[in-house]
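Pair request: fold both.
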Amino acid sequence: MTPSIGPGLVLPDGFLMGASTSAHQVEGNNVSSDWWALENRQGSFVAERSGDAADSFHRWPQDMDLLSELGFNAYRFSIEWARVEPERGHVSRAAVEHYRAMVRGALERGLTPVVTLHHFTSPRWFSELGGWTSPESADLFATYAGTAAEILGEGVRYAATINEPNMIALMHTLLRHAARRADGDPGSTAGGDHGGAAAFGPGAIEPDAEVTRALIRAHRAASAVLKAADPALRIGWTIANQVYQAEPGAEETAAVYAWPREDVFLEAAREDDWIGVQAYTRHRIGPDGPLPVPQDADTTLTGWEIYPEALGEAVRHTARVVGPHVPILVTENGIATGDDDLRIAYTTSALASLASAMRDGVDVRGYLHWSALDNYEWGSYRPTFGLIAVDPHTFAREPKASARWLGSLARAGRIPCPPAAAPAGVSSAG
């Protein structure tokens, strides 16, 4: 049963309500990218290949039609650098025109495009140079941003340079450990932590410090190029918000733990036009570090604790770190589940926690659900986050009840207040 929202919180004019995807996860056959190479490498640790994904490279008009018809007014998608520049210095004019058409298509359907330049994947040639550890990485990314400016110039208001740089820095460490294990180093073990697309659990390793610095340089270099092309463009980046909760006596440990994994990236956004919050669950921190998910906790298909209040806590934390002059867009929030009633219940409570933060003065300009489609979740199609189901053989799209429910909220211009009673397995928002 779809929950009643009562009067709810009336959203401010211009508030974005929509959904998100990323190119590699929905387009299919991203053959010039480093992730494609990783997936298809003999003996790869990646369990499942992306293949055709949701074939959105060809079916994006249908995807946008559905989002518009459902009542949404925004769509976040990414430009694939590996398609735009498949070989160093070679720009595919066909790919540029493809993404320009996507921007125009979104605007024609009444969808505000929120466009990401880098969503985890890079051209294979870039990674072979050393990726973000290459001394040229910031300049190469800025050059790509100059090409992307042609696409954004079709009418984009919001652009994100890099998706979840904290996860990119963490993945660099994880991949380095994986390479060492493959070389027979028995002392190399690693966990990880992620509140976004890749299914990592809390771990003791840190994001690579060199990659962190390189990503911040690349973000600033690309931002400068984009601003020079269009001073009115609103530029930011998106962070995987971990919602670190200190157990009693662990406040200092939690602060030290959080800084290299999240806060350093938030601090780098203090001069940006906006910051993207991406929140799914929480991570509890004890005096000795991260704690496992409680054995009795309800969990998602990715093994994350079901904790919808993470969204409100993430936007409050982000606002404290970046300051009051940087508005927030929720660029990802959702749940990996095959139970669509649970998706509605989770999102109801998540939005209620967001409404509470907004009522307390946090400047939030939009909510973009992850994800628009059931898609490729970095090694597996099993975790279904989508508002719209996709048949893996025919690619037929079928909106779920959650899509119609969330679309109705977008049409009404309001989001739920804290529910009187939460469904089983979902906490009520305070």
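--- second member of the pair ---
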Amino acid sequence: MFRTSGIHHITAFVDDAQKNVDFYAGVLGLRLVKKTINFDAPDVYHLYYGNEQGAPGTIITFFPQQNARRGVIGSGQTGVTVYAVPVGSLSFWKERLASFDIPYENKTRFGESYIRFFDKGGLLLELVEREGGQPSQWTFNGVTPEHAIKGFGGAVLYSHVPEKTMDVLVSKLGLEQVNEENGLIRLRASGDLGQIIDIQSTGIQRGIGGAGTVHHIAWRAKDYTEHEQIQQELEQTGYHPTPVIDRQYFNAVYFREPGGILFEIATDPPGFARDEPQESMGEKLMLPEWYEPQREQIEQLLPPIQVREWKGESKS
């Protein structure tokens, strides 16, 4: 049976590219590990942020499109993206968010304390202290490894039919139900990052895709063989997955689970250093070979962005 170790990446829509860079690099201290394009719409960036290596389980990705329609977070979506930070560092993050005038709420779930806030594009995020997961070694704009985001803590899924979503996670992806409280079901995957998944089982309005919402959540497959096997199993059991798609930095298979959420299975290999040195990842616009002849035209269509030591809107 296939058992994912947890989240591989999460991909969302956003409107303003530079605000996106300022928030995820400047405020959250993540590394921009890959600057490329939406392979299906080459006039749109595809930006990837994670730890120093861009390791699976740390990567959030965005399609920024200026003046994009704002979405509505709701059922049929990954509702909350949860990041794990080192134990003892929530107070640092509360002070940091306040210094950037970012409002936050204190939340408690299954005995854990979270801080919940929105990014500048309307995406709902949380930070939680966790023991597991390797510390990030990336240092930027005042965020050091002592407090840096390690990767995903998990996610809260908003489903049209929570019991069917839970069945897919358990029977197809190998998660285990571990708790239930206050309309939430908690499941756990086998890894130490991105492994805690909560399903909201009641009271969620229907979501509408657009800026500020998650497009899909991707689950890890350790290698190509395992990836092909789960694709075949999903096909045989009526989930209508896509064929295996080469996304340059991982292979992908997509399917929509019965609760309306778009799931992807993504391979850990080959990773983000396949087409540029790890030490300079994210600095240059990387294009797949079939788009290289159009590089000049594509670069003219994309807005300029920069990773900068951002101090906030009133001080930048």
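Observation on the second member. The mean pLDDT is 96.
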